[in-house]
């Protein structure tokens, strides 16, 4: 019986990709995030939900040190990626962001060709040795992002000339071209129509085979459709975290229940 418990614990430990403890964020005097503890699992889609201003994006941005770029932001606590402290002085945030990629709310392709958008990360991180290898990475990333068939004959055309949904898939291809271990998505479908949204949701489900995906969403239907784990934030606190099905069907905190039934929002 004891042996059994040891085996179960070992499996759980191996599956933790990011472990956050006591994370606090201040923007000047504003205490935006309070004492957040959470373990994010590998090969899992984790959704962050909660009312506007509750700190979802703030916490997401802690996970690849994007808050470093906000002068007034002060982050404390511990965040481990595979057991390594990402806020350790020796960690280069640019290298970290290649491992923990990010896709933003509004598609933001660079004013470069479709090819160069995807090749950008592998080039700056020196991930390929020659043009043939780079071509392979570009093609593989565009295929994973379900965009290859639509753009393969116009790779030298500008990325900004694509439709909104295609641009967002191009940004996903750009983010996955550096072979990240975690992909952070901040409301990735909010600028997309229902068809493009469905394509990106399908893609998210496929991407979890390769890495851990964390998505901030205002849509509870989307959280229920794409995620296996859900974290509910309220007024800077992580109120409840667990299996998505359980959070939506039998939340344990009354604040979660009020939010998912539409009483607070
Ligand atoms: N750069 C900033 N400077 C000052 N305050 C900020 C900054 N970014 C966020 N905040 C504040 O921190 C709190 C949390 O914001 P955050 O963007 O994380 O919330 P959110 O849950 O993602 O909201 P939304 O769903 O509206 O995007 C809010 O009160 C917000 O006003």
Automatic annotation (TrEMBL):
GO terms for cellular component: membrane. One of its GO terms (molecular function) is phosphate transmembrane transporter activity. Residues 11-260 form the ABC transporter domain. One of its GO terms (biological process) is phosphate ion transmembrane transport. SMART domains: AAA (SM00382). InterPro entries: AAA+_ATPase (IPR003593), ABC_transporter-like_ATP-bd (IPR003439), ABC_transporter-like_CS (IPR017871), P-loop_NTPase (IPR027417), PstB-like (IPR005670). Keywords: ATP-binding, Nucleotide-binding, Phosphate transport, Transport. PANTHER family: ABC TRANSPORTER I FAMILY MEMBER 17. This is Phosphate ABC transporter ATP-binding protein. It comes from Szabonella alba.
């Amino acid at each position: 019986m004891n042996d059994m418990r040891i085996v179960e614990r070992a499996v759980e430990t191996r599956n933790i990709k990011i472990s956050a403890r006591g994370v606090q964020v201040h923007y000047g005097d504003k205490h935006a995030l309070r004492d957040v503890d959470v373990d994010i699992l590998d090969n899992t889609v984790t959704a962050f939900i909660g009312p506007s201003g509750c700190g979802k994006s703030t916490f997401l941005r802690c996970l690849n040190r994007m808050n470093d770029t906000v002068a007034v932001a002060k982050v404390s606590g511990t965040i481990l990626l595979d057991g390594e402290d990402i806020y350790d002085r020796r960690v280069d945030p640019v290298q970290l962001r290649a491992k923990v990629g990010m896709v933003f709310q509004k598609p933001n392709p660079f004013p470069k060709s479709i090819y160069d958008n995807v090749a950008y990360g592998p080039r700056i991180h020196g991930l390929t040795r020659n043009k043939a290898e780079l071509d392979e990475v570009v093609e593989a990333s565009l295929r994973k992002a379900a965009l290859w068939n639509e753009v393969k004959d116009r790779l030298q055309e500008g990325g900004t000339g694509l439709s909104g949904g295609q641009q967002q898939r191009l940004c996903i291809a750009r983010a996955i071209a550096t072979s990240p271990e975690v992909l952070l998505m901040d409301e990735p479908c909010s600028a997309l129509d229902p068809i493009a949204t469905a394509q990106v949701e399908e893609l998210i489900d496929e991407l979890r085979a390769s890495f851990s995906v964390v998505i901030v969403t205002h849509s509870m239907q989307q959280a229920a459709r794409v995620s296996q784990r859900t974290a509910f934030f309220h007024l800077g606190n992580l109120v409840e975290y667990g299996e998505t099905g359980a959070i939506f069907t039998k939340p344990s905190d009354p604040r979660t229940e009020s939010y998912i039934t539409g009483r607070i929002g």
